[in-house]
Amino acid sequence: MSRRFPTLRSWTGGAAGLTLAALVVVELSRRGEEVAVPAPAASCVTTRPSRAITSRAMTVLCDDVYAEAGLDARELDDLRRAREEAGRSLRRVFGTQRSTPLVLFCRSAACKAAFGAPSSAAAADDLGFASAEVALDDGSVAPSAVVVTGPVSGTARILTHELVHAEMKAWAPYDAIPTWFNEGAATFVANEPACDPARPPSDVDVTSLTTKARWQRHLQASGKTRETYCAARAQVATWMGRFETDALRGEALATLLTSVAKGTRFDDALDAVR
Question: 135: helix, coil or strand?
Answer without folding.
Answer: strand
